[in-house]
Structure formats: C-alpha cells, structure tokens
Amino acid sequence: MKSLLLLQAILLLSTAAVNYYSSVDSPVMESAGYKGDFVIADHNIPVYPGSKIIKESSSDGNYNLVLETTDQPEEVAFYYKKEMQKLGWPDGSVMSVKNSAALMLSDNGKQFALKAVFKNGKTRVDIVMIGNFNLTVIPEATVHSNDLPTVVPDDPNENVYQRETQAVDKVSSIAEQELIDPPEDTMAESNQTNPFLKPEFEVTDIAYWPERTRIRAMVKNSGKPYEGNLEIRVNLSDPYSEYTLDRTVSVPVSLNVTDNEWLTLLTDFVWPEPIDHSTLNAVVAADPENRIEENDEQNNHFHKTLRVPCGIHIEALSNQHLVKGKGEDFAIYGEFGSQQLGKYVCAETDYSQSNLPGATEDTRTNLWVKSWKPSAVIVDVSGLGTGFYEIKFYCSDPETTEAYSSNAKVLQIVRKRIKIQLSSGAFNASDMANAMAEGYED
User: CA torsion, points 154, 159, 165, 171, in degrees to nearest 10?
Assistant: First the structure.
C-alpha cells in the first residue's frame, strides 16, 4: 500500500520539478542568455470541456489526470471514447452502472483507463494512461531566466536538468517521510490514490434460490481487476423470532473493472419453516475484515429483506353469512402456524366491478385477532359493514411491503331481518316505520 502511495507521490513531485523548467507556450526565451536542454510534455489527452482540473501528474511512460465536472459520468466517458479514436486509439465500450461509468482502451501495449463517478452533484473523473506519455527533449533551447533554478550553475555548460534530478531524489525522500508521518492537513487516502490502483468491491443485491437451496450475492468491482479468494460474510435473521445464521465463506473470484457478478455464498441453505419464518433480514459484507486494501472500505455492506410464501391455508369459515350486529367473534379454520407475529388477517372488498358512481377500487381492513392457535383463529368483525368480503391471511404487513397472501374465503354480512307482525287491529304507520329503521341500521 505504502509503496503505491510512495510511487505516486514521487511521480507527482518529480513531474512538478521537470515542469518547473518547461513552458509549453514559449519554449524558446531569448532574454536568458543561457542555453540548455528543454523538456516538454508530449501527450494529447484533451481536458473535458468546462471541467476543473483537480490534479495532473506524469512521468516517463505514465500520465494521470483528475477532473471535476457537473456533467453525468456517461457523457464524460462517451466524450473521451470519441476523442481517443481521433487520436488513433481503437474503439472501446463504455461500461456504466448507477452514477458511474468506465472506459478501458488498449493499443499495442498502451493502456488508457477512465473512471467517472457522480456524487454530491459533481462528477469526479480519473484518467490513467500507461505507455503513451513521453518527455521530449529539445536540445540547445534558450531558457528564460524566470524558469531557471534559484541558483544558476557556475559552469554554463553544466546540464541544469541533470542537477535537478538529484534534487528530485532529495524531494522524494521527503515525500517518503511524509507518507510515514503525514502532516495534519494531508488529504484522505482515498483522494490521494488512483482508483485503478486498488480493487473497489460493492455488494449490490442478495437473492435466495429455493430450487437449489442457495444464497447468492451480486458483487461489483469498480477498481483494479482482482483475482483470488474473496471473503464474504452473510447474516440471516428473523425479525419475529430468535432464528439467526451467521457464516463467513471464501469465494474464488475474477472481477475486472465494472464487473457485476452473482457469487454463490451458501449451497446448502434450507429455509426455516416458512409458515412461521417467511421473512428473513439478510446482510452481506464483502471482505468483512478489510484484508484487501480498497479505496473505500465503507461501501462493502448490503441489506435486503428476503421473503418466501408462508404456506398459510384457510380451510373454512365458522359462518359464510353473518347478520350485522349479531355477535362480534368470528372463527377461521385452517393451517396458520404456531405464532402470530408478523402475520395479518384482513377483510378485503373489491368495488371495481360494481359500477357504482364514486365507489373506491378496493378496501382492506385489518381484523383484530382475539385468539391464535395453529388450526383456529378468532377475529373481531364488528367493524365491518354489510357487504361481501374476502378473508385472507398475509405473511407480512400488506400496507408496507409486497406481502405473500393465503387463499381467500368469502364472507357476507347482511342487515337484520325485518319482522312485521300482522294483526286485525288498526294499522299503525309509525310502528312499522320504526321497525324498518331498526332493521336497516348498520
């Protein structure tokens, strides 16, 4: 790790020293009266329009450029794809995922790599080119006095650039010491290093494959290609019981930049009894012990709730027809599991086919459970009005999740029957109206 940091710091500092004596705008200055070899940068990578240069470093055979722009990563990648083709590089494919894009090119041993990541309203662009950067020497160029070292050599024939090489070595040792004992205002390590010098793992999805009893995770690498064993920790827990599984596995992988691949973590996983454990919270962490150095060690975790059908089945209702106001308790028979936690009993009505003006599409009412047994559940239906209802069980809250449900049984709630007693006496319209009103009350 430190060797990579040191190499980059030396390249940056040595390039700054060389560029101190170079002037792209005016390589020949007549007012100096001093002649010597003149070194200029020889690369053609364009700067993205409207961007801000954050960092630029180079050495013989290597070039690194860091930019910042407000454009989207994919726009930047396609821009450089087109521009590099103009410079004679072969066509390449832009690889993009959410908020990031990458472009990799190769030409006769030369390598060009671009990574663009959008974060906090800005896109950071890291460009690395290996094998296509040269330092061109122009002999006998007259150098302006402002471009000379503070101390001009006594011997006018001495090569000032050779002397400066020795100064660079001294600066390099200073850089090495600062890396060992960095100053307080040193930038964060992730900002000092090139994103392509280290792998960058991120877990992006988790899935359960019941047909193969497997738990799998999708892992993305957006940094340096990595081949070898990758430790992954998987934790499964039931939010409504004490069930838990925690295991760390070592998986052989071969992940190139922007690769997003499914990795099998568990091959012998048997889901606990679904009727009482239909929901499991899954947490997967790549490289949990941070054994592999990455640019960002904080994005290796991923959480997801996994669900399977719970298998609840309704066999019968205690009564398919209820009279409104005649009793509150209602029994449902079937297979419901030993515990109620996480399960819901609902009465649903579908008005979409009624063609009534102003009718809602459907309603769902959670019923209060008064008693729960594996084969019989008692609920309170006093809050339901007259009409037809589908009675269902849900494995989890249907209002907040895409929950699995049981089969349905239909319940009808009707109004009270009206009883009119006929007599031979005088007809009393008021008594008849009161009886009808009582019968139609909900």
Answer: 30
Which helix (H) or strand (E) segment holds residue 107: the answer is strand 100-107
Is residue 31 within 8 A of residue 144, CB to CB? The reply is yes
Which helix (H) or strand (E) segment is 10 a member of? helix 2-19
Q: Range with the lowest mean pLDDT among 149-153, 368-372, 373-377?
A: 149-153
- By the 10 Å C-beta count (0-12 exposed, 13-18 middle, 19+ buried), 341 is classed as exposed
Q: At what angle do helices 2-19 and 160-180 cross, to 10 degrees?
A: 150
The DSSP bridge partners found for residue 42 are 134
> How many Å apart are CA 15 and CA 13, to the nearest integer?
5
Q: Which residue has the higher pLDDT, 396 or 433?
A: 396
Position of tokens 């027809």? Answer: 321
Task: Name which of 183-187, 222-226, 369-373 the model is least confident about.
Answer: 183-187
Dihedral (CA of 19, 25, 27, 31) sign: negative
- Is residue 95 very low, low, confident or very high in pLDDT (cuts 50, 70, 90)? confident
Give the CA angle between residues 191, 67, 193 to the nearest 5°.
25
Positive or negative: CA dihedral 396, 402, 407, 409 = positive
Q: Would you place residue 431 in the very low, low, confident or very high pLDDT band (cuts 50, 70, 90)?
A: low
**Tens digit of each residue's pLDDT (9 = 90 or more) over 104-129:** 888 877 888 899 999 889 999 999 88
What average pLDDT does the structure give for the chain? 74
Neighbours of 54 (CB within 10 A): 13
Q: Identify any residues that bridge with 334 across adjacent strands, giving them in sequence order.
A: 314
What's the CA gap between 385 and 400, in Å, rounded?
25
Please choose, from the candidates 159, 146, 143, the residue with its C-alpha nearest in 3D space to the C-alpha of residue 26. Answer: 143
Q: Which residue has the tokens 């150095």?
A: 293
Kindly report, residue by residue over 247-256, the tens digit of the pLDDT: 999 999 998 8
Residue 21 is classified by DSSP as T
Whether the predicted pLDDT of 9 surpasses 90: no
Length of the chain: 442
Strand order of the β-sheet with 201-209 is: 201-209, 214-221, 259-266
- The residue with tokens 């209802």 is 389
Domains, the chain, in order of start with CATH, read 1-36+135-195 (no CATH), 44-132 (3.30.160), 198-307 (2.60.40.10), 313-414 (2.60.40.10)
Neighbours of 53 (CB within 10 A): 11
